[in-house]
Amino acid sequence: MQDQINTIMDETLAAIADSGDLKGLDDIRVAALGKKGAVTGLMKQLGGLDPDARREVGQELNRVKDAVQSAIDARKEELERAELNLRLEVERVDVSLPPRPEALGSVHPVSQVMDEIIAIFCEMGFAVAEGPDIEDDWLNFGALNIPDEHPARQEHDTFYLPASGEEGRPVLRTHTSPVQIRHMLSHQPPLRIIAPGRTYRSDSDMTHTPMFHQVEGLVIDETTHMGHLKGCLRDFVEAFFQVDNVPMRFRPSYFPFTAPSMEIDIGCSFEGGELKIGEGDDWLEILGSGMVHPNVLRHGGIDPDKYQGFAFGMGIDRVAMLKYGIPDLRSFFDADLRWLRHYGFRPLDVPTLYGGLAR
C-alpha cells in the first residue's frame, strides 16, 4: 500500500503544479480528497489492517492529505493572483489620454467666486485665515459684542450642539467672524486678513440656505480709518464686477461688532428682467461693514486706545448669483450635473487680476 500511496501523492502533486485554471484545480482536489477520491478510498481500507499497520498507514495518509491540501491552497493563490493581474491588464485605463469633452469636470460657481475674491484681496495685501466650523458660544457671539438677548443667539436662528461638560454649548458658526477673534488672539497688529468659509443658520428659501458661504475681512493698525474702508470696498466691487466707477451708497446701519456700521449698496438696473451692475437708478445691497467695536478689540487682546480698524462681510453665494445671473440659491446645493455644466467653470482657468476674472 505504501507504493500506492507514494504514486497517488506524486501524481497528484504533479497535476496540481500543472493545473492552469481554478476549475481544473478543483477537479484534482475532488479526484484526490473527495468522497470517491483516491486518498479517501485508501482511508476506507484501513479497517482491514492490523492495529500497528493501521496506525502507520493512517499517519502516512494524513501526511499525504496535508501535503495535497497545502499544494492546492498554494496553487490556488497563484492562479487567483494571475487572474487578477490579467484583469488589471485588460481593464487598464490609459490616464495619459485626453478626457472626452462630455466628461470634462467643472469648477462650482461658489469655488470660482471664492477664488476670485481671494485673488482680489490678496493683491491688496490681505492674507487668508481659516477656522473651525464648530465654535464655542463665546467666540461666535460673546467676543463679538453680541448680547445674550440678541435674536441670533436663539435656537430658531442658530444650530446648537449638545453641551459637553461645564462649558457652553458648541455652535455651528453663524459667520466667519470667530476667525477674526482667533487671529487677533494669536497675532499682533498690524493685521490684514480675509476669512472665507462655510457658515450655518436655520433658514431656507430662494435666497437663504441652512449652509452657505461667507467671506469677512479685517484690518487693524494704528491709523486705519473709515476712508480706507470705503476705498478698499470700492476697489473690490469694481474689480469683482469688472465695471469702472460703480455707483456705491454707504448707508448707516447697526451691527454689534462694529461702530459706526454701514451697509453697502451698488447702483444697478433691472430693466427687462436683466440685472446690470453699474447703471440705472436702482440699488442693491451686497455687504455690511464698519469700524471694529472697541469691545471686540479688547476681547481679541488688542488695546483699543492704541489700535483701530475696520471689518466687512458678504455672502459669497449671493455675489455669485448677482455676477453670474443665477436665480435660485438652492440650486447651488442640488448636485445637478446639468446645472453645473451650464454655470461651471473650466478647471484650469484660475482667476487672477492680471489674467482676468471670469464673467
What does this molecule look like?
There is one protein chain. Helix content is 40%, strand content 19%. The chain has 359 residues and is an alpha+beta fold. It has 2 domains: 2-90; 109-343, BirA Bifunctional Protein, domain 2. The strands form 2 sheets. Strands 1, 4, 5, 6, 7, 8, 9 and 10 form an 8-stranded mixed beta sheet that branches. The chain is elongated. The model has no long low-confidence stretch (mean pLDDT 87).
Give the gist of this structure.
40% of the residues lie in helices and 19% in strands. With 359 residues, the protein is of the alpha+beta class.
Features of this protein?
two-stranded antiparallel sheet; about 350 residues; BirA Bifunctional Protein, domain 2; 8-stranded mixed β-sheet; 11 helices; alpha+beta
What's the arrangement of secondary structure elements?
Elements: H1 2-18, H2 22-33, H3 38-44, H4 51-90, H5 109-123, E1 127-128, E2 134-135, H6 137-140, E3 171-172, H7 177-186, E4 191-200, E5 211-221, H8 226-241, E6 248-255, E7 258-269, E8 276-277, E9 282-292, H9 294-299, E10 308-315, H10 316-324, H11 337-343
Parallel strand pairs: 1-4
Antiparallel strand pairs: 2-3, 4-5, 5-10, 6-7, 7-8, 7-9, 9-10
Helix pairs in contact: 1-4, 2-4, 5-10
